[in-house]
Hints:
6-stranded mixed β-sheet; 19 helices; Structural Genomics Hypothetical 15.5 Kd Protein In mrcA-pckA Intergenic Region, Chain A; 45% helix; 3 domains; Rossmann fold; alpha/beta
Amino acid sequence: MSGLEELRARDFIQQCTNMDELERLLASERVSFYCGFDPTGPSLHVGHLVPLFAMAHLSRAGHRAIALVGGGTALIGDPSGKTEMRKMQPKEQIASNAENLKRQIAKFIDFDSGSAIMVDNADWLTGLNYIDFLRDIGKHFSVNRMLSFETYKMRMETGLSFIEFNYQLLQSYDFLTLYQREGCRLQVGGDDQWGNIVAGADLTRRIESTEVYGLTFPLVARSDGKKMGKTEKGALYLDPEMTPPYEFFQYWRNVADPDVGKFLKLYTFLPVERINELCSLEGQEINRAKEVLAYELTSIVHGKEEAEKAQEAARAAFSTGAGSTESIPSLEIPGSEIDAGIQVLELFSRTTLCSSRSEARRLVVQGGAYINDSKITDVELMIDPTWIEDGVITLRAGKKRYFQIRVS
Length: 408
């Protein structure tokens, strides 16, 4: 199998520079392909999952994955999908971020077997001579064509810096370099990278007189139209310090019914036949499919032990309203504070359930706030020791989001 069959069956494919030729190439030989991840932050997030799973599927089909961590390009920042220029970060921070990303990518791609490698474009970009680069590489780029890509069209309305304008040249140079060093014939990425990928394929074709390819994946949206991976606390990260495994599990456990099948195909390695069986469940039974989704993905990102702990905590919370396991997010508060009384809005605002007192007020007014399964309707309510059960006060927002106050 070329690997494209699996991607097609799971709805990964968005655009390709030459699908027929790429399919023949992948079916006839082992192909080196790459995907880039810029370390502009300390962790990958849910938006990176589709490229990671796609790389894993191609690697499992026998092709050679090259995971590129953009320690060089991150010094500039990709304007793709951005309405304003990225904040410049110190080189030391980018290097630290790159190390974090390498560890996260390794959970999806097997680098130990020799079927995949990891590279950092800082190795060849940071030492470039700018004049030579312009003469050898810059001459192959048309400004008019660059401005025709959607990325630059969007940024021209708000202002595009010259340093960002160089980003496409550098990413294209990555493709050329990886072809020359590693025989890389294919670049993959999210569909917001289409312009950069096409430019890299064109540059490599012009300089090396060879055919290389680009393949993009859809930018996933939820069925309600909201941005994928957004939670009350912000983005959903793969780093357990930024998004605890329990919260990560709960996000997927609580997805909307229409999204379950799509997410099972994109975010698990379960066979498509098994996914179709799960998607045939109706009514409350669909929750079984959601739990499978949450468990499978949390196992990959955080390990089976964390996935099992999160699953047990979620089941306890759903069945008893207590959920007294360590995996449920919690906060320790001295007993003296509870003895003195804490106003309910203040208590909720200290948790991950609400980011502020005003958000806590809305939660109470709208009827979504619960303490120990008792609905809270009074925004002035004082929480005192009578609310403590076995050393814990359990808060809930809506039907599914729990938080525990542990009284010391």
